[in-house]
Design a protein that fits this description.
The chain is α+β, with helices and mostly antiparallel strands and 484 residues long. The chain has one domain: Outer membrane efflux proteins (OEP). The chain is built from 13 helices and eight strands. The strands form two sheets. The chain has a six-stranded antiparallel beta sheet, with no helix packed on it. Strands 1-6 form a two-stranded parallel ribbon. It starts with a helix and ends with a helix.
Length: 484
């Protein structure tokens, strides 16, 4: 009775697994399939960390667009009618001896409506025009026929030769934009290699899942054989328990393998940022993969020449390029700060239609004393430059360590490949030997089947070792700035 229950439970478990697999296959059939190439291209645009970099680029681009608005025409209209009181009150106040040097022309001349337009150019020229009409002239036909008063003025700084504030901001923002784009390009390539590594891992997990499933089926068949032997008295309870233990272990391994590949695949899809109902078939012999493998095989590195490799990395690594941009920005800020405190020479000119007069002049100005502000600012910019230089040396040191790790890992992977190759060759020799023993009846079909699983496992291990070499070479090429 107990044997029948165990047997029924085993059949139920097998039926359940087959049903789940069928449901999984149907679900996959309904999902939209995309190729590995499409998945990688999607991932380098929609991965969460890539999106953050792209958002920062958009923010910098908006700031640059905002700076460009400074060069647009700016028009302002204003009216200052007197709601209460009048010019008489103003005259009374002046008669009391109050100095009204700061009183605007509008207050003196009475209320008026004015239209002012300003235009700033990147070279620092400022053009300004103003058209105005007094409130009292709005109802005077003679005044209206004469037209409104208008003035036109132009200003340009002659010395020192210093970019205007908006151009300085634009220069620094442009450097930040270059940095962000360098970072984006680098991280996209890095992510592509990371996605590819996960894809190879999934293929090997799928192959191991197939082995685990086959092993479970073999264990189920062995248990059924034990049941038949028990019925004819050729086996007992001990053999039944042993077969059930083997079956249970095989079942656990199968479920673990299934859970592992499911988790890894879901994590990979999440990292890619794929939309729901999207499936990427695990195919090893695609033309896209073959092209990548062919290119990686063509790469030859002289890993003994670390100095040459380091020079190549320094010339191409995005962190070096970005720190050099930081150095350039800091140097410019220091130069601008020194220049802005030199004597100022401005050229200006103006024309007024009111009395048809024009004039041109030069304005000189110089801050004799600023309370020590210049010195403090210079010290701050100098400290910033020194920090950037320290950061450069720190980055170079970190890149040396990273290069050493990549080279060391490549050597380890190469040794691992040699070991896995020898294990595979040993398994092939064992396979030939056991086939002879099987033909001679020295081992059973069941024993040979289990041996076959071990040989297939060694083949998967060999493939994994080759995958590691491939990914390692791609990472070294990426680190050195070698592009496909």
């Amino acid at each position: 009775m107990n044997r029948r229950i165990i047997k029924n439970n085993s059949f139920f478990i097998l039926f359940l697994m087959i049903s789940i697999s069928f449901i999984f296959i149907v679900a996959n059939a309904q999902a939209k399939e995309i190729s590995l190439e499409e998945a990688l291209n999607w991932g380098i645009e929609n991965n969460s960390s890539i999106k953050e970099i792209k958002n920062s680029i958009e923010t910098i681009e908006r700031s640059l667009n905002l700076i460009d608005t400074e060069y647009g025409f700016k028009t302002n209209i204003s009216a200052n009618p007197i709601i209460a009181g009048g010019s008489d009150k103003q005259a009374d106040e002046n008669s009391n001896g109050v100095d009204e040097e700061d009183t605007s022309s509008e207050s003196i001349d009475g209320p008026k409506i004015s239209l002012k337009t300003t235009k700033l150019f990147p070279n620092g020229i400022i053009l300004q025009s103003e058209i105005s009409i007094k409130e009292e002239d709005l109802f005077d036909l003679e005044k209206i026929s004469e037209g409104p008063d208008s003035t036109f003025s132009a200003t340009k700084s002659l010395y020192p030769l210093l970019p205007i504030q908006s151009e300085q901001e634009k220069y620094l923002a442009s450097n930040n934009l270059l940095k962000a784009r360098e970072n984006l390009t680098w991280q996209q390539e890095y992510k592509k290699i990371e996605f590819l590594e996960s894809y190879f891992n999934l293929i090997r997990l799928q192959e191991r899942l197939t082995l685990a499933k086959t092993n479970f089926q073999y264990a189920q068949e062995d248990l059924n054989k034990i049941f038949k032997k028990i019925e004819i008295g050729e086996a007992g309870e001990r053999q039944e328990i042993e077969a059930n233990i083997i079956l249970k272990k095989a079942e656990i391994n199968f479920l673990q393998a299934k859970n592992t590949i499911l988790q890894q695949k879901n994590g990979w899809y999440l990292n890619l940022g794929l939309p729901e109902e999207t499936e990427v078939p695990l195919v090893e012999d695609s033309p896209f993969l073959e092209e990548i493998i062919k290119w990686a095989d063509s790469l030859e590195f002289n890993l003994k020449e670390e100095e040459e490799l380091m020079e190549l990395a320094v010339d191409n690594h995005y962190r070096i390029r970005n720190i050099l941009l930081d150095q350039d920005s800091s140097q410019k800020e220091a130069e601008w700060n020194l220049t802005k405190n030199k004597p100022q020479v401005d050229l200006y000119g103006a024309y007024s239609s009111k009395d048809n007069t024009w004039g041109i002049g030069i304005e000189l100005s110089y801050d004799i004393s600023d309370g020590g502000k210049q010195k403090i600012e210079d010290e701050g910019y100098q400290a910033k430059l020194e920090n950037v230089e320290d950061d450069y040396l720190q980055i170079v040191s970190e890149l040396k360590l990273e290069l050493y790790d990549l080279i060391n890992q490549y050597e380890i992977n190469s040794l691992n490949l040699e070991e896995k190759l020898m294990s595979w060759e040993k398994a092939k020799l064992e396979e030939e030997s056991y086939q002879i023993q099987l033909q001679q009846g020295l081992i059973s079909d069941s024993e040979f089947q289990y041996k076959m699983l071990g040989w297939q496992e060694s083949e998967i291990n060999l493939k994994s070792a080759k995958d590691e070499i491939l990914i390692n070479k791609l990472r070294i090429a990426h680190f050195l700035g070698i592009r496909k």
